[in-house]
Structures are given as C-alpha cells and as structure tokens.
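Final report, closing paragraph on structural work. Over the funding period we assembled a curated collection of sequence-structure pairs, and we close with a single example.
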Amino acid sequence: MKKFENAARSLLEGKPILLYDFDDREAETDLIYLAEKIDAKAVADLRLNAGAPLTVYISWQMGQTLGLDTYLDFVSKYADPNSIYRALSEPTPGFDPRFSITLDFRENKTGCSHVETARTVRELCDLLKEGEAKDFARLFRAPGHIPLIVGTKGLLKERNGHTELILALALNQGLFPMVVASEMIDAETGHSTTYGNARKYGEQRGLDFIGGNELMEAYG
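Its predicted structure, as stored:
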C-alpha cells in the first residue's frame, strides 16, 4: 500500500509519523520516530509537541533476545503472592499493558536530558542490530528514565494496541522494529488530542497519518 510505503520512507528519513488507533479503543494518536534515527531534536519534538511520557516499543523477539518479560509477567513469576507488587499488578478490565522495564545507558550522567535520552535509545538500537545482547547489562542500567514496551508475539493477531500497530507496519515495510513514541496531548484541554485535531496537526507539519483500521485491514 502506497500510504504505508510513504510512511516507512518518512521514518527512514528521520521524520516522525502519526498513528491513530481506534475510536472504540483509546482514541489516541501517537507521534512516532524510528529508533535508529532518533536524536536530541527528535526527543525534544516528542516531549514538547506530543507531551505524554516518551516510550520505546520493541518487538517480542527483541524482548526475548534481551531476556526481558513484561512487568506483569515478571511479577507473576517472581513476586511474593502477598506483596504490594502483586496487588498493584492485579488486572484492570480492558487494560492490557505491555510495559517491561525502564532503563538508561550506563555512561549517561542521569539519562533524562534530550541528549542522553537519545543516546540511550540509539545505543540500545545499535546493540540489538549488532546482535550483542550479551552486553546488555554491562551497557545499561535499570531502573532508568526510558520505559520499554514489548509487543506481543503474534502482533495484530493477539492485540491491536499502538505497539502492535506500528511494529506490524515496521516489519512489513522492512524497517528495524524499534520505535520511539509519545501520545499526543492537547495542552489546552489536558486530554488526549482528538482525531480531528491530530489530523490537522499532521497536515500543518506535512506528516504521514495512519489509522489503526487501515493497518488491521492490511496486516491483522
């Protein structure tokens, strides 16, 4: 689909795209960059023009390569049944988080600046692309400032969140399946940016805008 090819080209050129999920799900739009193209300017864009906490989406296979479960999987395996960790992890109907750990690159001072955040993302991307997972714990520390979110193994056949939607696009367009995202927040209302305003924002910046229904139709 030409629209997907154009979005993939934008990501490879270091430009962000916008991805809306569904009216009957979160009804939210993410501003997204390809992880291998992230820099301090892109981090600033995500933080200042999207507004929600910056997160990094990685594929299920990448999570396995790094030896990472989701936080809920980890807690269910290792936490005391009577601990506060178990209590806080009790499922909420309709809520299916895929958060894993938070991390920073060890050579960073704190990890929270735009420059250091970009470095953490790029270093992790390089480690995965070069197949050097054995150095993961040596090069990175947890907890840190960057949350990792791990996609489901079957992607859109198992879940249709922003994570699976963008990873499905990346994988089907031959991109390295690791992206950096932030949800669009309306600074005036304090709520998620509406679909209409997100589309208008994308048009003003000349950004590719993709809907979840389009991706489900193609890859679901």
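The chain has one domain: 2-219. The longest strand covers residues 140-150. We thank the funder for supporting this effort.
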